[in-house]
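Researcher: I'm comparing several assemblies side by side, and this is the next one on my list. It has 621 residues spread over two chains. Same procedure as the others: predict the full complex and return the structure.
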Amino acid sequence: MRTKILQVGRRLLQALPSVFGIIVISFVLTRALPGDPAVYFAGAMADKVSIEQVRKSLGLDRGWVEQFGIYVDNLAHGNMGMSLSTGRPVSEELLSRLPASIELTLLGLGLAVLVAVPLGVLAATRPGSWIDHLCRLLVTAGVSLPTFFTGLFLIYVFYFLLGWAPSPLGRLDILYLSPPQVTGFYTIDSLLAGDLETFAASLAQLVLPAATLGLFALAPIARMTRAAMLGALASDYVRTAKANGLSRATVLGTYAFRNAALPVLTTLGMVFSFLLGANVLVEKVFSWPGIGSFAIEALVASDYAAVQGFVLSMALLFVAVNLAIDLVLTLVDPRVGLDD
Amino acid sequence: MARFLRHFRHVMAENPVTAVAFALLGLIVFLALFGPWIAPYDPLATEATKTLRPPTWAHPFGTDHLGRDVFSRVIVATRLDLGIAISAVALSFAAGSALGCSAGFWGGWTDRIIGRLSDTIMAFPLFVLAMGIVSALGNSIENIVYATAIINLPFYARVARAETSVRRNAGYVAAARLCGASDTRILSTQVFPNILPPMMVQVSLNMGWAILNAAGLSFIGLGVRPPDAEWGIMVAEGATYIVSGEWWLALFPGAALMLAVFCFNLLGDGLRDLVDPLRRT
């Protein structure tokens, strides 16, 4: 148990350099603007006084090291500057939109795992069969399809042609009121409020964008599951388990799959990173009011503080997810840390 | 060379998909080179009387909301899309192999600093980082190229580093050193040519991704400005008309994009078979 705690501690320490690196890069990005950053951050409508004010608050009148210190200090207090387009603090804007994006991303990831893992396992246990070919086809298609294109295609088929899906505009049809905010996830909030009708409506809005993200995330997960499962099936312990006459289900489930699940879990971190990027595109296609749409609006409006705040928080979110996955792996896998 | 050609034919015959990918590549390169002369209409010419027409023989891919011929625009866009992707990949290939080779060859602090740099880039969700870079450098096609190059850099640096560190103590490196060649000379004339094959595989696997990234950036309104023809922005323009059933505006540029990415991905797999010594029999 003590070694586990030590390992967890060491892993937490290992995250520090990447967090530091991320902060340095996003600091450089905010200062890389051609010309005077204060003019950009103050916006197009600013006069001399407000530009001076921004220069003071960003610390642009001081040395580089001191500027970086001020930047880090601001971040530590959750201060990412003001959004020019909305006039509210960037951190507040991001936090209020985060639940919409998280709900969508998690559902997409969940859908992908639910389809990809069984698909990969089946493909590995029956190499050369039709399911193996289906797996390969889906994997190739998944990496070649632009997410925004998949999304538009789904809208055309399921909204325009079949009329099964509600209009692809936002989280909830205008006929419904958003449920009282508890978690910020409309599906969960409406269930908590006991409002089944709103739940169904918000789920209906979620299905197409989540399926789009899911199709995108499916490919790497299925490929990894298949490879890991093939590796596990060729291992000595599976051979021994078979030789000892264990049932097929035990061999596949306990011996092969539980070992294959570890690399798949590691891949999920990478997939999550891709999903955060794909999320931006999907949110634009479905007019989803999440942080991705916010970032696009900010980009178009040259709202620098908002864009850099978005980039920074996505990177920190990604580090946190990777950390969580690694911690789970450390706690679950007895082999992790044995070799060092 | 003769052995390589024989092997090339063998791989092609064994895997017809790779042959298809090569044919597709030929078509894409051809369109990129000669697109403006092949296109039946001027990609920018608007015609107010013929807006939003579904595909016909005169306009195989239909016309868009300004009456421009979608077919011509898809063809002409090939050059811009491919140009962005090739320049980005060339940049990250050059910078990545220089960094990766030095990291793998000299090790020590060089390796640590370069490794830390590429780890830090990889710590960002890459598409999001590209958005941030474009926003910081300014919204132009040139900066889309730089952003795509930066987010692809770590992949090249990693491959180059791994392949170089394997060869750092190879016999031919020792021989060159005995002959009195300097480190940079050994790197450029002995090591680099030897790591080229795995790097080329990385290039073609990466190309599809670079195209997708650049198209994604212009889909959200960065870089390419209307009325220029580019696949990503054409899909974005067509997106508005999908809900009212005008599918051809978004479908054809999207399909062209998909086909190009698909082609490079297949090509990457094929090239891997071609250079992978384990499969060379």
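Model: For your comparison table: Chain B touches chain A through 47 residues (CB under 8 Å).
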